[in-house]
Amino acid sequence: MRTTLKNGFLFALIALVCSFSSNILAQPQPQTKTPAKKVESKKEEGKVIHLNKEEFLKRVFNFEKSNEWKYLGDKPCVLDFYANWCGPCRMISPFLDELAEEYKGKIYIYKINTDQERELASMFGASSIPLLIFIPMSGQPQANRGALPKEEIRRAIETVLLGKK
């Protein structure tokens, strides 16, 4: 029974992410402040943070305890599903480092290695990488497959995550 619920949830989450993948910049989501516990340390501010499954469950979404999507962070985030062998992933990596510093204290940028975290990659349908998922404080995540120019990533951060027009 538990496996069936988990599989059903994973399918629903993948469908949700895929449904937003072609419409990332079309309509910004309204932003509201949601109190949450702070999980970032000062040494992580302004840096890209690599996540494993355990950290993902604490910082982003605990799919083992809940079937309903609820972002756990205290700031919006970008999830970057990547692999070390992926050329387009390596191409956008410096952009994400720069944007993490630029938006220091406003957002998190998390990286998830699809070769090491296969369960997370499978959950989000990260069979084609890079996969960037923009997670606002409220509302649904929005995804984009493929390498984006730095300015398009910045525009998505501004509109989807920070609610600016």
Question: Overview of this structure, please?
Answer:
The protein is an alpha/beta fold. The protein has a single domain (2-22, 41-161), classed as 3-Layer(aba) Sandwich (Glutaredoxin), CATH 3.40.30. The chain has five helices and five strands. Strands 1-3-2-4-5 form a five-stranded mixed sheet. Strand 2, helix 3 (87-102) and strand 3 (108-113) form a beta-alpha-beta unit. The longest helix is centred in the N-terminal third of the chain and has 19 residues, at 2-20. The radius of gyration is 15 Å and the shape is globular. Mean pLDDT is 81; it is low at 1-40.
Q: What keyword list fits this structure?
A:
5 strands, five-stranded mixed beta sheet, Glutaredoxin, disordered N terminus, globular, 165 residues
State the gist of this model.
With 165 residues, the chain is an alpha/beta fold. The protein has one domain: Glutaredoxin, CATH 3.40.30.10. It has helices at residues 2-20, 53-59, 87-102, 118-123, 150-161; strands spanning 49-50, 77-82, 108-113, 131-135, 142-145.
Order of helices and strands: HEHEHEHEEH
Number of contiguous helices: 5
Work out the helicity level. 25-40%
Q: Pairing-aware structural class of the strands and helices?
A: alpha/beta
Query: What characterizes the major β-sheet?
Result: 5 strands, mixed
What would you give as the CATH superfamily? Answer: Glutaredoxin
The largest sheet has its strands arranged as 1-3-2-4-5
**Mean pLDDT reading:** 81
As for the number of domains, it is 1
Q: Give the low-pLDDT segments.
A: 1-40
> Would you give the CATH topology?
Glutaredoxin
Count all strands and give the number.
5
Instruction: Determine and state the CATH class.
Output: Alpha Beta
First-last Cα distance: 45 Å
**What is the CATH architecture annotation?**
3-Layer(aba) Sandwich
Strand content is 5-15%
Q: How would you describe the shape?
A: globular
Radius of gyration: 15 Å
